[in-house]
Design brief:
This is Zinc finger BED domain-containing protein 4. The structure is a single chain. With 201 residues, the protein is mostly helical. The protein folds into two domains: 20-62, no CATH class; 76-181, no CATH class. 65% of the residues lie in helices and 0% in strands. The chain is elongated and about 85 Å long.
């Protein structure tokens, strides 16, 4: 399979010069999304790979039409995560208020995908289960929901649980009230100190 990467035959079939052509990609374990990009590129070049393999009977067999469709459904289910990793890695500072919106958008997109083959259906089920397992209680944490509520870009738009949303709003109101009280107490203390100083003079 490695001999297929950048194969001159593929360049010839595409009618493109080297340097202006898509080549097959190998995954790199230390790089995010590399397996995703490898599969995605293979699907793009699958027709050319098939043409090459037809002329090489001793090489590995080409995937069947069903197997290619399984890969397409897999890529479709993984693409939302690729978008999220690009969004996160593209910023110098990822604010905490972005976590819930990103998770919510990924979940909605995954839920909207309707795979037809067993592998795609099972993968979708597993992804949703893992999202719930790892992040299902995130709206009931303390800092993340509050940060999301206070971010004017998101507010309460990305809460999936109304109880968690109301709890976060109540916490924000409580913090605001305590802040006002603390400010008032500080101002009163300052005034008392000033009066004591005046009396001493």
């Amino acid at each position: 399979e490695k001999t297929m990467v950048g194969s001159p035959i593929i360049l010839l079939l595409e009618g493109k010069k080297e340097g202006n052509v898509h080549k097959l990609i190998l995954d790199v374990k230390t790089r995010w999304n590399s397996t995703f990009y490898m599969i995605d590129r293979f699907l793009v070049l699958s027709k050319f790979v098939s043409d090459v393999l037809l002329k090489k009977p001793l090489d590995p067999e080409m995937l069947t039409a069903r197997e290619l469709q399984q890969l397409r459904e897999t890529i479709k289910l993984l693409r939302p995560f690729e978008k999220v990793t690009l969004e996160i890695s593209g910023e110098k500072y990822v604010v905490i208020s972005k976590i819930m919106p990103l998770l919510n958008c990924v979940t909605i997109e995954i839920e909207s995908i309707q795979p037809n083959l067993d592998i795609g259906i099972e993968l979708k089920r597993n992804i949703i289960a893992e999202l719930k397992k790892r992040f299902g209680k995130i709206e009931f944490l303390y800092m993340i929901p509050i940060a999301t509520i206070l971010d004017p870009r998101f507010k309460n738009l990305h809460f999936r649980d109304p109880v968690a949303c109301q709890k976060a709003i109540a916490e924000v109101k409580k913090l605001a009230k305590n802040s006002v009280q603390d400010t008032s107490s500080t101002e009163c203390s300052s005034m008392d100190e000033e009066q004591k100083t005046d009396n001493f003079d």
